[in-house]
TrEMBL record, chain B:
Belongs to the bacterial solute-binding protein 1 family. The keyword Transport applies. Pfam families: SBP_bac_8. The lineage of its organism: Bacteria, Bacillati, Actinomycetota, Actinomycetes, Kitasatosporales. This is Extracellular solute-binding protein.
């Protein structure tokens, strides 16, 4: 078994986790929720409702069925289920990666790794809480931005009257096919203190920050600007209370300037992929539907609000889910651009898992972080599904 | 449905067992049997700094192969920490390999390194600080392959422009502060260095403090000496005459020195190669770091030649390492890719060949070796993170956090 760092699959790949990751428990989740939850569509559940065939025939059918899917089952079992279970076991050990974790040479410590991360006051918990905070803001900004941008782009290039549609589609999709490592490196140069971005800003009289070395949270800057809190010396309620080793002020300080550049980068790179998904869905909307709406005399906004968006609901769920999973697993941009610096404000759980495992030879804790991340992603996806569920009882839809 | 679930469970179990059975790399725990034949095949894994180093190591290995009758394959790692971790887990490590000082204690604690220090008769020739760093459980585990120390490098053109002469090279903290302020003008900053313990640590040393005690068994981070050192650094930062390399859009002090953004920097002897490659026209001179309240102080860095506990060729691998760390070979390496020998006897020869590197060679007499404690990587990373914000932070709090985090890591490592 080879532990592979959890290089998070770009959200562009719905089938995601190809890497059998010890530390990347998250990657194993990418497979299941990727199927859009088409309500009312013909699912596998439809088969049992059909009139039952004679018993013998069905059994033979089952055997043949298993035979046909066995290659995939074996591949999935060997490279997905098995490593996940192994990693789960490792997360209960104090394992330094230099012995056999399945022979009792590594100490079984029960839930100690999880306890260090969640309840025990110390560096581990502070770092984990910091990484959660950073990633939370990252998800909070990236997912809505990239979805709205992707939808907007898709609506633009879906117009039949638009000239040069093909060229535009290619252009918008281009960032997604470029290697994220290469793009990250280019961004490093663009956002240098004396880089292109700051030069542009200086033309309009704005002195840009030194993006990648600026650990100040943008919310705290905002609060500081309004004179509510002094960001350098926070006092009062916010500084006196803490949760998981971080003060309320630290929780609320928002993404750092450095994190904002990473957010900009990922919005830019992923929106093309999601644009493609939206575009495919838009072209699936029956023309008659739009035409009849047009005859009714709706304007463009009403068309979007009451015809297009409802038709896109399953795809919207898909895009939001893929976006959430992808953003909670962000690793490669952080690895290339900042490695957690400045001031730990770009530290993410995926990167922390990697550095705990390979930097400190604490593979147990690395695996534990990965599983906490997995639990978090599952919860988020569940919440999203609940929020976007088909509300059949809504009166407006019956018209 | 029950049948189907049962079948699925059965298939999963079968796969699990097959996979566990197949993973031959994972069993054992038994001692590896030693190969005693006269012609053995050795594998070596290195993390090379470039083609020059790769070629030098390969040539040396070939020369050894010719002399001993063994064959040697040298592989270059892309990410040596990860590759070694994987090979240790699979019990199929290379016979000899570079060990980074930040990983040394993790490997030694895990029992992956074969301690061969007692087989090296002239081990005393290696500097004592480095031997301490590569000692685990009272045993010298591996030999430092080379070393580097920190000194003060000065851009001579900027120095003259500020009206300073050779007499003005700073020898005390007060003088450093004065010249740094004098040199800071326009786009030039007096002193530029990375905001991390591996550079700023020299001030802790000069103040008479350090992160741990000499045996690395106790944290001594929250001492008044350390607080004094960080307060001094903070005063330089606040005055603007010291800036971190990333504040002036550079990655390290050498780049700042070469681009003329820094008049002085604190760097090691790798600076020579970097300046020659990127800024061949920039003149600079290297002088010892100024003395602090407790005299001279600097830091030394090194990697060591590890021999695998799981190797079947331990004797031959130790033989190879002895050959590669011999005085003659170290002098050759120094000429080939600019590293400083870790043997005191070879350092004299090195100083003769590279008179401009005298400050670095002399510094190894009083340099502090790297911290090698298992699980300490994150503690020092956190310290670096805190040091990056030193300008506005409370030095005492930074040190108190370091003390606490370090004590936790020490407690966990026991």
């Amino acid at each position: 078994m080879s532990p592979v760092p959890p290089i998070s699959p770009m959200p562009a790949e719905p089938a995601g986790g190809t890497a059998p990751a010890v530390t990347g428990g998250g990657s194993t989740t990418a497979g299941s929720p990727s199927e859009p939850d088409a309500p009312g569509g013909p699912g596998p559940a439809a088969a049992p409702h059909a009139k039952p065939a004679p018993r013998v025939g069905r059994r033979a059918e089952g055997v043949w069925g298993w035979l046909f899917v066995s290659p995939m089952v074996i591949v999935l079992g060997l490279f997905l289920v098995l490593p996940t279970l192994m990693a789960l076991w490792v997360s209960l050990l104090d394992w330094d990666g230099q012995s056999n974790p399945f022979s009792g040479q590594a100490d079984f410590v029960g839930l100690d790794n999880y306890r260090d991360l969640l309840t025990q006051d110390g560096l581990d918990r502070t770092l984990f809480a910091t990484s959660l905070r950073n990633n939370f803001y990252y998800v909070l900004l990236t997912v809505p931005l990239q979805t709205v941008l992707a939808l907007g782009l898709a609506l633009i290039v879906n117009q039949r009257m638009l000239r040069g549609r093909g060229a535009l589609r290619t252009t918008f999709f281009f960032p997604s096919v470029t290697s994220s490592i290469a793009v990250s490196t280019i961004f490093l140069f663009l956002f240098q203190g004396s880089g292109a971005v700051n030069t542009l800003l200086s033309w309009i009289g704005v002195k840009g920050p030194n993006w990648f070395t600026d650990p100040r949270g943008v919310l705290s800057l905002l609060l500081g600007g309004l004179g509510i809190v002094d960001p350098n010396r926070p006092a009062g309620v916010l500084a006196d209370h803490s949760f998981m080793g971080l003060s309320w002020f630290e929780w609320l300080s928002g993404p750092s300037v450095a994190m904002c550049t990473i957010i900009a980068l990922s919005v830019w790179t992923t929106s093309g992929t999601f644009m493609l998904i939206f575009l495919a869905a838009l072209q699936n909307i029956p023309r008659e539907l739009e035409e009849s709406a047009a005859i009714e005399g709706v304007n463009r906004f009403e068309m979007l609000r009451h015809v297009t968006l409802p038709a896109l609901r399953p795809v919207l769920f898909l895009v939001l889910t893929l976006g959430t999973i992808g953003t909670w697993q962000v690793f490669d941009q952080v690895y290339v651009m900042s490695q957690g610096a400045p001031g730990n404000t770009t530290l993410t759980p995926a990167f922390l898992s990697y550095s705990a495992a390979f930097g400190d030879a604490d593979f147990g804790q690395g695996a534990a972080i990965a599983f906490l991340l997995l639990a978090l992603i599952l919860t988020m996806t569940g919440l999203q599904r609940y929020a976007l569920r088909e509300r059949t009882a809504r009166p407006g839809r019956k018209r | 449905m029950v049948n189907r679930t049962a079948a699925a469970a059965l298939v999963t179990c079968a796969t699990l067992m097959a996979a566990t059975g197949c993973s031959s790399g994972f069993d054992s725990g038994t001692k590896t049997e030693q190969d005693s034949s006269s012609k053995q095949h050795l594998t070596v894994l290195i993390a090379s700094s470039g083609d020059a180093e790769t070629k030098a190591v390969k040539d040396a290995a070939a020369a050894y192969a010719k002399e001993s009758g063994n064959t040697v394959t040298v592989d270059v790692a892309k990410d040596i920490n990860q590759q070694l971790a994987q090979s240790f887990a699979g019990h199929k490590p290379p016979d000899a390999f570079y060990v980074n000082s930040d990983q040394f204690a993790n490997y030694a604690k895990g029992g992956s390194l074969y301690p061969y220090g007692d087989q090296v008769k002239d081990a005393d020739d290696f500097s004592e600080q480095l031997r301490t760093s590569f000692t685990y459980d009272g045993k010298l585990v591996c030999l430092p392959k080379d070393t580097s120390t920190l000194s003060l490098a000065i851009n001579t053109a900027l120095w003259k422009k500020a009206g300073l002469t050779d007499q003005d090279y700073p020898t005390t903290w007060a003088q450093l502060k004065t010249v740094a302020a004098k040199l800071t003008k326009g786009k030039v900053t007096g002193l530029v260095t990375n905001g991390e313990w591996a550079r700023l640590g020299v001030f802790m040393k000069e103040a008479g403090g350090w992160i741990t005690d000499a045996d690395q068994t106790k944290m001594t981070a929250d001492s008044t000496q350390n607080a004094g050192a960080l307060t001094y650094v903070q005063s330089l930062l606040k005055s603007g005459s010291l800036k971190y390399a990333n504040q002036v859009d550079t990655n390290w002090g050498g780049e700042a020195l070469g681009k003329g953004k820094a008049a002085m920097t604190i760097e090691g002897n790798w600076l020579t190669g970097g300046m020659k490659a990127d800024y061949p026209d920039v003149k600079y001179t290297v002088v010892p770091l100024p003395e602090g309240p407790s005299g001279q102080g600097t830091l030394a860095f090194s990697q060591c030649w590890g021999v695998a506990q799981d190797s079947a060729h331990q004797a031959a691998a130790v033989d190879l390492v002895k050959y590669l760390t011999s005085s003659a070979q170290q002098v050759k390496n120094a000429a080939a890719f600019g590293v400083m020998p870790s043997r005191t006897s070879a350092q004299a020869e090195y100083a003769k060949q590279n008179p401009s590197a005298k400050a670095w060679v002399d510094a190894s007499a009083y340099a502090q070796g790297p911290v090698t404690i298992a699980g300490f990587d994150k503690v020092l990373t956190q310290f670096n993170t805190d040091l990056a914000g030193l300008a506005t932070a409370d030095p005492k709090k930074i040190l108190a956090d370091l003390q606490r985090n370090g004590e936790q890591a020490l407690a966990k490592g026991e």
